């Protein structure tokens, strides 16, 4: 059995995909939709990548492409320090499979695929029997994908802004986004037919790891729950944050009311906390060396929390600058999650519609999630 066949069989064993998608995934091998140059992170490094070309290292290239991991296909420059960061990839097969399954398609359905990338997902959808309109913002990627997809007459490749969808081919039975957002764009709801599905990664700068499936009603409102599966996708190009210089002025010091490790130890807790913070991110605490947890917000507010032993409980364990007290916000958001019984992400839901802010809820739409604190709402375009 091929490496790719083993990857697909693993998705079946884990119940990521049902029978309808198995043959499609085996038939449309990712290998045929991956460029000859990909990028591998240097082991043990922090954001260092090296080229792996099909011609120079065919075996290594093949191992990467047939693996169960995402494959980086394009690098850009970080808005923080100018270092290399992935800006396009071929997503992990498990994430792709989970999203395809959630679309709940019937052969002949018209699907809007957003973030074409290599064109692999559009090919999977077409092979399943869907009529596909796929939208890619990068003109080079769009042209390359169109060439790979030329043998699929059911696929139309459009170079454009995926946030705007593509009204010409609407309405769609389903919308699939291959990138993360912090707010559901109104165009997606408008262009989805009543009863249609919107499947997209959704999260915050703090933890972009939720996957939601929304169903659109006759009034243009889409609502649904989050999947229990964690996913990790790149941000939509227009929502990549540009971080300002940290705010100046005197620091406010205090003790932390909780061990900062508690705030970070649960994926569901980080995810629920991040949805309340909106425009805040953090640096993971390193294993050795500097034991300080740092937080930033898009308005320049910042916080530093001591992690070593009980330093966080000292009078100067937390240092905060700027208009906001970010650590106080993070603790309050985390405490809400603990007091709610530490719910997993699949107990949360989302309602979105044209002209409305997204509404997050717990268990039922009438049990509202706390609104984001102080800064940008989830989905506010930045940078």
TrEMBL record:
UniProt superkingdom: Bacteria
Main location: cytoplasm
Keywords: Cytoplasm, Methyltransferase, S-adenosyl-L-methionine, Transferase
Gene Ontology MF annotations: methyltransferase activity
Keyword Lipid biosynthesis: no
Residues forming coiled coils: none
SUPFAM superfamilies xref list: S-adenosyl-L-methionine-dependent methyltransferases
One GO term of the biological process aspect: methylation
Family matches, as InterPro entries: PCMT (IPR000682), SAM-dependent_MTases_sf (IPR029063)
Annotated compartments: Cytoplasm
EC numbers, comma separated: 2.1.1.77
Pfam family, one: PCMT
Family note: Belongs to the methyltransferase superfamily. L-isoaspartyl/D-aspartyl protein methyltransferase family.
Name of the protein: Protein-L-isoaspartate O-methyltransferase
Organism lineage string: Bacteria, Bacillati, Actinomycetota, Actinomycetes, Kitasatosporales
């Amino acid at each position: 059995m091929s490496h790719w066949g083993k990857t697909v069989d693993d998705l079946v064993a884990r119940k990521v995909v049902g029978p309808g998608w198995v043959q499609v995934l085996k038939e449309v091998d990712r290998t045929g939709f991956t460029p000859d140059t990909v990028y591998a992170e240097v082991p043990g490094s922090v954001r260092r990548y090296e080229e792996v070309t099909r011609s120079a290292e065919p075996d290594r290239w093949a191992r990467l492409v047939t693996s169960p991991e995402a494959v980086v296909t394009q690098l850009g420059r970080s808005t923080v320090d100018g270092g290399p960061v992935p800006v396009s990839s071929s997503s992990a097969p498990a994430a792709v499979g989970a999203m395809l399954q959630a679309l709940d398609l019937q052969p002949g359905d018209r699907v809007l695929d957003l973030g074409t990338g290599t064109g692999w997902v559009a090919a999977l959808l077409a092979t399943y029997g869907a009529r596909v309109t796929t939208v890619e913002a990068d003109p080079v990627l769009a042209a390359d994908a169109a060439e790979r997809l030329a043998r699929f007459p059911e696929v139309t490749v459009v170079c454009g802004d995926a946030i705007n969808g593509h009204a010409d081919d609407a309405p769609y039975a389903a919308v699939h986004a291959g990138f993360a957002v912090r707010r559901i764009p109104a165009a997606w709801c408008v262009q989805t037919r009543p009863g249609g599905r919107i499947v997209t990664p959704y999260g915050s700068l703090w933890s972009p790891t939720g996957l939601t499936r929304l169903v659109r009603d006759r009034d243009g409102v889409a609502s649904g729950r989050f999947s229990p599966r964690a996913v990790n996708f790149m941000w939509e190009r227009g929502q990549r944050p540009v971080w300002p210089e940290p705010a100046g002025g005197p620091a406010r010091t205090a003790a932390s009311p909780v061990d900062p490790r508690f705030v970070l130890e649960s994926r569901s807790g980080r995810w629920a906390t991040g949805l309340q913070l909106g425009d805040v991110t953090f640096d993971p605490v390193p294993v050795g060396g500097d034991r300080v947890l740092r937080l930033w917000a898009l308005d320049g507010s910042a916080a530093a929390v001591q992690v070593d032993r009980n330093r966080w409980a000292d009078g100067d364990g937390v240092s905060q600058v700027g208009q906001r007290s970010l650590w106080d916000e993070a603790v309050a958001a985390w405490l809400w999650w603990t007091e709610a019984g530490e719910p997993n992400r699949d107990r949360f839901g989302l309602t979105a519609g044209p002209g409305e802010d997204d509404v997050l809820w717990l268990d039922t739409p009438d049990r509202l999630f706390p609104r984001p604190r102080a800064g940008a709402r989830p989905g506010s375009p930045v940078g």
